[in-house]
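pasting for ref
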Amino acid sequence: MAVRAVAELLVSQYRVLESIGSGAMSTVYRAEDTTSNRIVALKVLAEKYANDREALARFEREGRACMSLHHPNICAVYSLERWRGRPFLVMELLEGTTLAQRMKSGQIRPQGVAVIGVPILSALETAHALGIVHRDIKPGNLFLTKTGQVKVLDFGLAKVRTPFPAAQMTDATAVTFVTMPGTMLGTLGYIAPEQMRGELLDGRADIFSFGVVMYEAMTGTLPMPGRERSPLPGPIGPFIERCIHPDRDARFRSATEAREALAALQFN
């Protein structure tokens, strides 16, 4: 739906003002809640998925997961509603840019990575404490607001308690697989080895993905297995290496432990 075509559209009680983003499965609109005059974001499932049980389950799982999470560094979801048979999320409206977009303008210094990383780990602490593993931490799911906050987005792959199907993957291209039978969940290049193997996960899988994102933010490359890695300057190097260790038992035991370690680093 084009931006110029949505000005008069009412979605339930919400007056759509403009389209502000779209992906493979949904479109996000800036909208006004006509009952409260609050400006919100509406994330509407794409019409082609309206009868897709797996896509509906993923979309609704994101809504339920986020509504259970209350943290300043997690994008708030106010409600999960339906319009013309299609579900949509009423969300906190964020102004700013994703980390993926920020990284296009250049690498981030270690001090900047720490400033971004501590609140991300704090958000993951809250999710993990409720038994929610994000499973798709990547630059596109991390948002930097104009006011300097960091927000974790998109819990659509979260809170699944069954093992993932095993798969053989040889190319770490960043391709997202939706929740369909026989497919892998997550984004290649960022997911932990145990996630690739289809094993049951805990919060250490998110710590691995977090470490990959921080490495990429500083170097502009992904830490590919078997390839020479760009050296990381200063004390953050050992921290990142521990986050992305292929053996989860060698990583930080929790997001709390990782956050405390990152916050304690001293930079010149």
